[in-house]
Amino acid sequence: MPIVSTSTWTEPKEISRYLARYFKKLKEKEYMELLFNYGMCPPSLMFIKELEEMKKRQVWKKVKAHYEKLKKAWNGPDVAVLVLPSNPRNRKMQREFNGRAGVAFTDKLFVFMTSHTSDEEMLAVLTHEYHHVCRLKAINKSDETITLLDAMMMEGLAERAVEEYCGKKYLAPWTNYYTIEEAKKMWEKHVKPYYNLHADEKKYDQLLFGQNWYPEMMGYNIGYHLVTSCMKPHTLTTTQLLPLSTNTILKKSAFQL
Q1: Of all residues in the chain, what percent are helix, strand and coil, respectively (each to 5)?
Q2: Which of 98, 184, 232, 252: CA 20 to 30 A from 9?
Q3: What pLDDT is stored for residue 215 in this prediction?
Q4: For residue 111, what are the β-bridge partners?
Q5: Per-residue DSSP letter, 40
Q6: Which residues form the DUF2268 domain (predicted)?
Q7: Residue 146: strand pairing partners
């Protein structure tokens, strides 16, 4: 079953071993650090306590129902879905995102949350991350082969999917960091010359996440406005956009090369 029974993971010392089966090409230190960076709570008594609280709310049952709905709507692949506690010490995540976070790969996705994260917020993360999985399949690319423009567009498409399936209220805060006019200026000034970068190149993360002196979450915000500017004039849905190439969507948008 795609929804992994993480509710049964009751021994902190065993968590890394349970996760090993999902990261066969990485060493323990590598995959644990990766998950910590994306917001997972370090294995601890707090980790287990949060799982217990989530269990009381029947989180896994709700995730399964929503996952099946999305899978049918998008004709998506079966992937492992792991719901785990988020890090309570990550103040930015707890403050701005109410403890919700996630990460997706071609064969699995993670939803991180706390006992204070609402069901709707949790399902918004699932929607966002599963859309990434479906988009990678649709354009026949992987985490290693996507370009910066692919990644930006994936973020925009995933958040538009959140709006469609969960409601505008559950959009990520970064969608409102900048206006479309500001996004266009950032695209022209900072991103356009590097749109074809790959993830192993230094500037990729800087432009996507807005690191160093770049505006915070710059690439994400541009991606959201880019996709929105394509959808509204043509009255398209994210399901209709899902199989379209990155270049096709770009040409229909207000952002040009």
Answers
A1: 60, 10, 30
A2: 98
A3: 97
A4: 83, 102
A5: B
A6: 59-251
A7: none
Q: Which two tokens stand for residue 217?
A: 């979450």
pTM over 0.90: yes
Which residues touch 113 (CB under 8 Å, ≥6 apart)? 54, 59, 83, 85, 86, 99, 100, 101, 121, 122, 125
Looking at this protein, which amino acid is placed at residue 50?
E
Query: Is 219 in contact with 155 (CB distance < 8 Å)?
Result: yes
For the segment 152-156, the average pLDDT, to the nearest whole number, is: 98
Residue 179, token pair as written in the block:
């206006």
Written as one letter, the residue type at 132 is H
Distance from C-alpha of 146 to C-alpha of 153, rounded to nearest angstrom: 11
Question: Which residues 6+ apart lie within 8 Å of 149 measured at CB?
Answer: 195, 196, 246, 250
Query: Residue 95 is encoded by which pair of tokens?
Result: 């403050």
Spatial separation of the C-alpha atoms in residues 173 and 196, rounded to whole Å? 26
239, with CB counted inside 10 A (0-12, 13-18, 19+), is middle
Token couple for 147: 């370009």
**Closest to 131 (Cα-Cα) out of 204, 73, 64:** 73
- Locate 21 and state its tokens: 């089966």
The SS3 assignment for 2 reads coil
Q: How many CA atoms lie within 13 A of 218 on its CB side?
A: 25
Residue 1 has pLDDT above 70, yes or no: no
Report residue 143's pLDDT band, with 50, 70 and 90 as the boundaries.
Answer: confident
β 108-113/80-85 pair status: parallel
Beta-carbon count within 10 A of 38 CB? 16
pLDDT, tens digit, 9 for 90 and up, residues 98-118: 999 999 999 999 999 999 999
